[in-house]
Amino acid sequence: MQPSQVSAIALGNWNPKIFTPVWVKERLLCLNSEDEIKVQLDFNDMDFGLQYKNLILIPKGTVLEIRTKSFEQADLQIFTKALMGIFDLLPQTPIKAIGINIIYNFSKDADNRYFTLLEKFVHFKGFEVTMARYSLKKDKYLANIIIEKKGLETVSVNFNFHYSRTIDLEKTFLETHILESSKILSDGI
User: Fold this and answer.
1) Which whole-number Å values give the CA distances from 41 to 59, 75, 103, 150, 176, in the listed order?
2) Cα separations (Å) of 47 from 5, 42, 59, 71?
3) 130 in helix, strand or coil?
4) How far apart are CA 120 and CA 117, in angstroms?
5) What stretches of 26-150 adopt beta strand conformation (E)?
């Protein structure tokens, strides 16, 4: 069972000008001179991002997003190194919260328990239930599961691990949360 997306969202007061290709390459990721950092530009939102292999880093004034396109061990290690490195290199940045998101997408079929779960909720006259949310308070974070229909044939199960403090993020946070989400999915509802 593979996630379809892994991302981290850090809410705070970021200075996007710090995140230059040279800074990311040399200071954050400590890459060799032949390694390439690509610059991306989203013309719709006029946001810029940086990409190294499958890692994408999008700094904005109030939000820093990191996501990966791959779930190979090496790519997940780069993801973790980038997020933890940002907190180490920029300790003075005021950070309000960190969300680690692990998303799985499932196709609708006869045995899909997530579609069935949404269909079992009490419906208001004429309305359809398209989303369900569950929360569980842990020692250092809040675990949320959001189940949402994406059209007629797909359901998305988003595991969001919400931290209020960067010091609560352990170096193995990503592996821990991928295992936790996978175990919840395999154990069933």
Assistant:
1) 12, 22, 24, 27, 32
2) 20, 5, 8, 25
3) coil
4) 5
5) 38-42, 47-52, 55-59, 63-68, 95-107, 131-137, 142-150
Give me the mean pLDDT over the 18-45 stretch. 89
As a whole number of angstroms, the longest Cα–Cα distance in the chain is: 62
Cα–chain center distance at 122: 30
Rounded to an integer, what distance in angstroms lies between the CA atom of residue 118 and that of residue 125?
A: 15
Alpha helices in the chain (DSSP H): 21-22, 73-89, 113-120, 173-187
Rounded to whole angstroms, how far apart are CA atoms 6 and 79?
9
Does the reported pTM lie above 0.70? yes
CB 65 within 8 A of CB 3: no
For the stretch 99-110, pLDDT in tens is 999 998 888 764
* pLDDT reported for residue 30: 94
Q: Provide the pLDDT for residue 110.
A: 45
Distance CA 115, CA 100 (A): 24
CA angle 118, 67, 16 (to 5 degrees): 125
Q: For residue 115, name the pLDDT band (cuts at 50, 70, 90).
A: low
Confidence of residue 46 (pLDDT cuts 50, 70, 90): low
